[in-house]
Amino acid sequence: MPFKRIVLLIGAFVVFILAALISWYEGGQLRGEPWEWRYTAVFSNWANEGFTNADNLWVLDHFVYAAKFEPFYPIVMAISFFFVLFLLTFWLFRGRRGVRNAILLLVASISFLACYALFDSPTIGFQLFAFLFGITGAFSVFGMIAVKSVGYSEAKGFGKGKFL
Question: How far apart are CA 68 and CA 24, in angstroms?
Fold first, then answer.
């Protein structure tokens, strides 16, 4: 792996960690808003079958709250996650098109399902996430097509360090 890709990978991972910590902090506001627990604390409601205590909130519910109402850092976190995922997929499976395309197809399928699920959300945060998931699915499909096309084949340098 060239030095440039290693720097990109480490940088994106650091951005992911920092954005996750800030999102977790922003999502901590959920503890002080019990009227929002019914709609936002989906993981805690599912696991505890309804609850009335802020101590029973799961950490994932903090991220859901941040994504709904403070979406900037959760979106940065998601973008950096997808960047790391795509970078590792194209690096680790450089010589295996079938495996790489299967991973990209899985990412595209999950992204399009998430886009469909979040598209009609009343909050701007989930609408932005729906758009992000739609773009990610489109990039995944483009990655599968570009790898198979003759113009971007590995023989012409697509997977040999000239892409990034």
Answer: 13
Q: Nearest CA to 42 among 28, 55, 67, 60?
A: 60
Q: What's phi and psi for 157, nearest 5 deg?
A: 110, 5
pLDDT tens per residue, range 83-112: 999 999 888 888 888 888 899 999 999 999
Domains of the chain by residue range? 3-156
Structure tokens at 140: 């995944």
What are the structure tokens assigned to 103, written together?
A: 């991973």
Q: Do residues 53 and 42 touch, judged by C-beta distance below 8 A?
A: no
Task: Decide: pTM greater than 0.85.
Answer: no
Q: DSSP labels for 35-73? A: GGHHHH-HHHHHHHTS---GGG--HHHHHHHHHHHS-HH
